[in-house]
Specification:
Elements (H helix, E strand, L loop, with lengths): L1 H5 L16 E2 H6 L1 H6 L2 H6 L22 E5 L6 H6 L11 H14 L2 E9 L2 E8 L2 E8 L6 H4 L13 H17 L6 E9 L3 E9 L5 E8 L6 H7 L19 H17 L6 E9 L5 E9 L5 E9 L6 H6 L11 H17 L7 E8 L4 E8 L6 E8 L6 H5 L12 H14 L9 E4 L5 E7 L6 E10 L3 E13 L4 E10 L2 E10 L8 E17 L2 E20 L4 E16 L1 H4 E2 L8 E2 L1 H4 L1 H6 L1 E15 L10 E15 L3 E14 L4 E14 L35 E6 L26 E4 L4 E10 L4 H6 L1 E13 L14 E3 L5 E4 L12 E8 L5 E5 L6 E6 L6 E12 L2 E12 L9 E5 L4
Parallel strand pairs: 2-4, 5-7, 8-10, 11-13, 14-16
Antiparallel strand pairs: 1-6, 3-4, 6-7, 9-10, 12-13, 15-16, 17-18, 18-19, 19-20, 20-21, 21-22, 21-31, 22-23, 23-26, 24-25, 26-27, 27-28, 28-29, 29-32, 30-31, 30-38, 32-33, 33-39, 34-35, 36-37, 39-40, 40-41
């Protein structure tokens, strides 16, 4: 504005400017209508003094006949064009009335800032000053509404002719835009900055004001229900601290009308058939910041259902039988929602039998004396309808066959509304097209014919992602992937992904086709390499234990059994290499120079796991899926039963069985989504591994349970585990003993080594309620929820512990702790000794070797029980710009000794 203010600006009428500053258009706008219709004499008086034309003279001129008409002051417009706007013509008699009409005609064009007519003896002179050309439109003070939201909505634009009417309209339009945002105190002041060559800049100075909230909602006349109950039924909410994320606290006239309907619906569901809203008034507070809404209602009397029956005119439906199956009975409180649901169910039922346009109408007979509502559901006769044609429009990349094969109805089939609903759900689940896609129905060439149309809008299906993030599990994460979900428009999916973190690395190429060779058989293949560093925790310190590298591929093929059920077979071949860091976990146990896995350093369970092995796995799974969306379901269920057999070649022999079921409900129309999940699995070994305390299922093949599946626990925080405790040392590096001679060990969780060893069996259950937020929070992708989890992991063979330090301690003359008497069972009792390969010497004394340092070690085996662990908490999903974000606050309700609990967990940048 500084540069604009320095530019000279004069009045729009063309008067000389005495002050070089922007002109306020408010005063000019109010005078536009006066100028448009003023008589010629007045217009002449407002013209510049040095060029003021004479008004039509009152005295009789020397000649009243127009001989010539001359235009003075035209710059952009041709004089002939200007003359075409008026009705004065040469040869016509010149009168004051004709001159006034000409001035009105010029005003109506809105092309001139000033205009006047003078008659000089039959020579008529029209003096005009053209309106300036707009150089640019400037918005100032708009923070809540950006220019790209305002400029397309206004009429003025650069290189147009400036007119007052457009300025007035644009001011009103901008204020209306702010009112839609709930800012009723917004003010707009237009200013004009004149530039050389009859150009101007238009500046809209905007004072947005605060967002107008609903301060109070008052309800008068309600006796049966409290104000709070009725406010809860409304979409509009009172502005409170607890409604920070809600956008429904702003005033919206459309929402006011909708809330009246919501109140009526509520009372009708409670049986008050005579309810009405007498008035609904929204008053702006004196400070113009908030609104106070007042409803006046009449509740009326409560009704019950009377005689309820079905009157069917369709030959496939028996009225008496259907009447006995209605959800409402005589004496039940009247509920309009139940009536609507019954109409919908009867319509859907008729659609399943091919009556596409069956008309179901409820007839009401009100018995006001007895407060009864008699309802008759009339099913009007309609012809059976057949599908005449299926039209697909709007697809440019996706081939028609990709869409047609998802249709559950074909040309010539009897119409079925359930088939249309299922078709809509299947096409939506593809993810190739617009959200909320629906198959539309139009009448065909005959009354018994119908046309199904799929009017689609394609959206990009290619994905190229590079992300970096941090999680409480993987620390720093780098990931990149490229995927095309609709490859060549055939519905095929092809992808390449690479992931890298401190503890895992993977690369995978995948391809899948839901209809191989255009047959109803799905198939796919994955080729991958995965490097995983397992870990344990010593307190909060995460330590790498074994490294597992897996190279392999997996093939799968599936066939549908029914509309919702499919059978999928798979084959997987993996080559696994499990290694330990020899510098950390290997020792010369026998003194022969050969370094072997040291059970004292690594634990016997890790020493049992190392090696190379080949796994050949055949799998079979039975899946049921009736979800309304695979991306973000709100209703429906999914069930999966799977089995895997390892032993068709390879080194491993076992059977793995799993089951999983999940159900979603959309709770009413409130936006709440409730879901429950139950899953479990078991592994049955088909071979025996030698050795006491050695489980027949390798560590790398067992189940693990914890974050993120089981919230409230650390990763692998549930189930069998070994806690390795070290003895406390004094200043001479000797184990600390109590007065009874017992070694004192560190027992705090952050002072012990924690190794999860997995289990053969597990179960997991979950209940979750997703809470809807306002539109603003939904646009941010925020989805909070409350949840409860229950589960357990168990069934591993009890391992042989490395050291048992029980026994009687002995000291030398200096008081140094040397060894202890071997306890029952023949274990080595030295406080800093451990068994060697040969358990005893020839005389039966335990054969021990010294451990470096003075610490003793004690291992505890915990958590191997099916006893349920229960947690509950709150969480938030956020589709952040960095990638999916999940945060959970959990509280353990029931746990088992050894479980590793976590109250707060989060993941950013990746999904697990």
């Amino acid at each position: 504005m500084n540069r604009l203010s320095e530019t000279g600006a004069g009045p729009v009428t063309g008067k000389p400017a005495s002050v070089k500053a922007p002109l306020r258009l408010a005063s000019l706008l109010c005078c536009g209508s006066i100028l448009a219709g003023m008589p010629a004499m007045v217009a002449a008086q407002e013209a510049p003094a040095e060029s003021q034309p004479a008004a039509p003279e009152a005295q009789a001129p020397r000649s009243n006949t127009i001989r010539t008409i001359t235009v003075v002051g035209a710059e952009r417009l041709e004089p002939t064009t200007i003359l075409s706007y008026i009705r004065l013509r040469v040869g016509q008699e010149y009168t004051a009335v004709a001159a006034d009409e000409a001035l009105k005609d010029l005003s109506a064009t809105e092309l001139f800032a000033n205009y006047a007519i003078r008659n000089d003896g039959g020579n008529v002179v029209i003096t005009i000053t053209e309106n300036p050309v707009i150089n640019r439109i400037v918005l100032e003070g708009n923070e809540r509404l950006k220019p790209d939201k305002i400029l397309p909505e206004i009429k003025l634009s650069p290189r147009q002719i400036f007119t007052r009417s457009k300025v007035r309209a644009d001011v009103a339009r901008i204020i209306e835009l702010y009112k839609r945002q709930g800012r009723f105190a917004a003010k707009v002041e237009p200013k004009l900055v004149q530039l050389p060559q009859n150009r101007v800049d238009i500046v809209f100075e905007i004072s947005e004001g605060p967002k107008s909230k609903v301060r109070q909602i008052n309800i008068l006349g309600n006796e049966k229900f409290s104000d709070g109950k009725l406010r809860g039924e409304m979409v509009t909410k009172q502005a409170r601290l607890t409604s920070f994320f809600s956008s429904n606290t702003s005033y919206d006239p459309d929402r006011l009308a909708f809330d009246q309907q919501k109140l009526r619906q509520f009372y009708l569901t409670e049986g008050y058939a005579d309810f009405r809203v007498v008035s609904a008034v929204a008053e702006l507070t004196p400070d113009q910041k908030d609104f106070i809404i007042t409803y006046v209602v009449e509740e009326g009397e409560r009704y019950t259902f009377g005689d309820v029956k079905v009157d069917s005119q369709l030959r496939d439906f028996d009225s008496d039988v259907m009447s006995t199956q209605l959800p409402m009975q005589d004496g039940d409180f009247y509920n309009a929602k139940t009536v609507e649901d019954t109409v919908e169910q009867l319509t859907e039922l008729a659609g399943r039998y091919g009556y596409a346009f069956a008309d179901v109408q409820p007839r009401f007979n009100r018995d006001a004396d007895n407060r009864k509502m008699n309802v008759t559901f009339v099913l009007r006769e309609a012809p059976r309808v057949y599908v005449e044609r299926v039209d697909i429009n709007g697809n440019t990349l996706t081939q028609d066959k990709v869409i047609r094969r998802e249709f559950r109805l074909a040309e010539g089939d009897a119409f079925n509304s359930l088939g249309v609903q299922r078709t809509t759900a299947r096409i939506n689940s593809l993810g190739y097209f617009q959200e909320n896609f629906e198959v539309t129905q139009t009448e065909g060439s005959a009354p018994d014919r119908i046309i199904l149309e799929a009017n689609i809008e394609e959206r990009p299906t290619g994905e190229l992602q590079f992300s970096a993030g941090f999680s409480s599990i993987e620390q720093f994460i780098l990931a990149g992937s490229i995927r095309q979900r609709n490859f060549r428009g055939r519905g095929q999916t092809i992808g390449l992904s690479v992931n890298y973190s401190q503890f895992s690395r993977s690369a995978q190429i995948s391809f899948s086709d839901p209809y191989i060779f255009d047959r109803n058989i799905s198939g796919g293949i994955d080729i991958y390499r995965r490097d995983f560093n397992s870990f344990n925790f010593t307190g909060n310190q995460r330590n790498t234990t074994f490294e597992q590298s897996t190279t392999g591929f997996s093939m799968r093929a599936g066939v549908p059994l029914t509309e919702y059920m499919s059978l999928i077979g798979s084959y997987t071949l993996n080559y696994e290499q499990v290694t330990l860091d020899e510098n950390l976990f290997f020792s010369d146990l026998n003194g022969d120079g050969v370094r072997e896995c040291d059970p004292l350093r690594a634990g016997r369970f890790l020493c049992d796991a190392i090696g190379n092995r080949l796994s050949s796995i055949v799998g079979l799974s039975l899946n049921y899926n009736s979800l309304n969306s695979r991306l973000r379901p709100t209703r429906g269920k999914t069930i999966s039963l799977s089995s895997e057999f390892a032993g068709l070649g390879g080194d491993q022999r076992y059977i793995r069985l799993r089951g999983r079921a999940q159900q979603f409900w959309n709770v009413g129309n409130s936006g709440f989504i409730f879901s429950v999940l139950a899953e479990g699995g078991t592994i049955v070994p088909l071979q025996e591994r030698p050795g006491a305390g050695v489980d027949d299922i390798l560590l790398t093949d067992r189940f693990f349970l914890g974050e993120p599946q089981f919230r409230g626990y650390a990763i692998r925080g549930v189930g069998p585990r070994i806690l390795t405790q070290t003895s406390q040392l004094d200043q001479f590096n000797r184990p600390v003993v109590d007065e009874d001679g017992n070694i004192q060990f560190f027992t705090a969780r952050n002072q012990v080594r924690d190794d999860a060893i997995g289990g053969r069996n597990y179960y997991l259950g979950r209940a979750e309620l997703e809470i809807p937020l306002g539109s603003g929070a939904r646009e941010l992708g925020l989805r909070p929820s409350i949840w409860a989890d229950v589960g357990a992991l168990w069934g591993v063979e009890t391992p042989v512990l490395t050291v048992n330090p029980a026994g009687t301690q002995l000291t030398n003359d200096a008081g140094e702790l040397l060894y202890s008497t071997p306890p029952a069972g023949g274990s080595c009792g030295s406080l800093n000794r451990t068994p060697t390969t040969s358990p005893t010497q020839p005389d039966g004394t335990p054969n021990c070797r010294e451990i470096q340092g003075g610490s003793n070690i004690r291992e505890l085996f915990l958590g191997n029980t099916p006893s349920p662990r229960i947690t509950a908490g709150i969480g938030v999903n956020w589709n952040s710009p960095f990638g999916p974000f999940r945060i959970d606050f959990a509280q353990s309700i029931r746990s088992v000794e050894g479980d590793d609990e976590r109250r707060f967990t989060f993941n950013v940048g990746t999904q697990f």
